[in-house]
Every structure is written in structure tokens, then in C-alpha cells.
Amino acid sequence: MSAPAQADSAATKRQLRTALFAVLGICFMTGVAWASIPLYRLFCQVTGLNGTTQRGLEAPGAVNKLIRIDFDSNVAPGMKWRFRPEAGSETVKIGARDMAFFTATNTDSKPITGTATFNVTPSQAGKYFTKIQCFCFTQQTLQPGETQRMPVIFFVDPKIMDDPDARDVETITLSYTFYPVDSAKSAG
Questions:
Q1: Same domain, 108 and 43
Q2: What is the CA radius of gyration of the chain?
Q3: Count: domains in the chain
Q4: Is 79 in contact with 188 (CB distance < 8 Å)?
Q5: Full-prediction pTM beyond 0.85?
Q6: What pLDDT sits at residue 182?
Q7: Of 158, 177, 164, which is closest to residue 65 (Cα–Cα)?
Q8: For the domain that residue 101 is a member of, what is the CATH number?
Q9: What is the pLDDT of residue 8?
Q10: Is pLDDT above 50 for 58?
């Protein structure tokens, strides 16, 4: 083999190796991007970071302190639902079980399945806001024109009063945003 042919062969091998590493890098970065949202959500649920609430089985019992809970509702752009809390706020005893209702109406001409994400502010209160039952734990499907009343059962853990960063919190905002579920779009 002549010298120019060997040089061309070596250059081709380098180019193939570079292309292979580029494709592997793209695949790796796509995998990281795909996994980052569920991993971050799991991390926040475990630590209570960024106002992520906790799940519980039962309230520990009321203490003699009140806290105001404000309710906020949102719908992703393009999702044809009307979604509102039945009450804008409630004042509850810390440690006592309470229930609030939200109402969703499908204003589209086809069934829509949605899932709700949630957040609590201020963020330092998130780990003390515990949901026992919530429509956000499962997907919700509404038929055209259907209205559904959806409960959330919750309590504020009395441990909030022992946390120097959270004990002065007087108002907690529970916010939900409904997003369409892609599988419902393709099925509908």
C-alpha cells in the first residue's frame, strides 16, 4: 500500500472513531436529559426540596395553632380544561386532617386525560405539607363537557413548628397544574 493510501486509511479511521464518539455522546446526553426529570422529582419528593409535598396515611392530631392554606390552579397551554379550587383558601389547625375540593371541566369535544403536578410555597413548608389522598396521584380522564369534583385530603405536620426555617410560616400555597397525557391524545 502506498503512503498516500495509508494516510487516507488512517484519516478515515480517525473520522469514523470521532463520528462514533459523537453519536455515543449524543445518545448519552439524550439519556441524561430523559432521566433527569423523574430523578429530580424523586429527589425532591424524598427531601421535600422546592416545596414538594409528602404522602402520608393519617394526620398526627391537631395542635392549637392555625395556618392558612391558599389554593392555586393552572392548566397547561392548549389543554382545554377549566380547573379551579372550590375555595380560594382555608384556615386549618396544624396536625389536623382537612379536605379541599377542586373542580375540572373538559371544554373540548373529545375525551382528555390529564395529570396534575403540584408544588407548595414557601418551599421550606413543602416537607411538612402531607397529602393523604389526592387526584394528583393518578391520571384523570374527562369526557367532552364532563365536570369532575376532585378532593385532596391533607394535613400540615406539627413538626413545622420545630423547624427554625418554617415555624414562622403563616400561609402555605398549594398549587396544581394539569398537563395532558400524550397517550390520551393518540387514543382520542
A1: no
A2: 25
A3: 2
A4: no
A5: no
A6: 76
A7: 158
A8: 2.60.370.10
A9: 75
A10: yes
The cell numbers describing 103, all together, are 373542580
User: Whole-angstrom Cα distance, residue 173 to residue 117?
Assistant: 14
Q: Could you check whether the bond before residue 38 is cis, i.e. omega within 30 degrees of 0?
A: no
Q: How far is CA 93 from the centre of its chain?
A: 26
Q: Are residues 37 and 111 in the same domain?
A: no
Name 134's bridge partners.
Answer: 152
- Cα 81 from Cα 73, distance rounded (Å): 11
pLDDT at residue 66 is higher than 70:
yes
The 3-class secondary structure across the chain, one letter per residue, is: CCHHHHHHHHHHHHHHHHHHHHHHHHHHHHHHHHHHHHHHHHHHHHHCHHHCCEECCCCCCCCCCEEEEEEEEEECCCCCEEEEECCCEEEEECCCCEEEEEEEEECCCCCEEEEEEEEEECHHHHHHEEEEEEHHHCCEEECCCCEEEEEEEEEECHHHHHCCCCCCCCEEEEEEEEEECHHHHHHC
Of the candidates 56, 51, 42, the residue with the CA atom closest to the CA atom of residue 154: 56
Task: Note whether 64 and 46 are within 8 A (CB).
Answer: no
Instruction: Specify whether 181 is located in the same domain as 117.
Output: yes
Residues 126 and 149 grouped into a single domain: yes
In which domain, by residue range, is 3 found? 1-47
The whole-angstrom separation of Cα 86 and Cα 125 is: 23
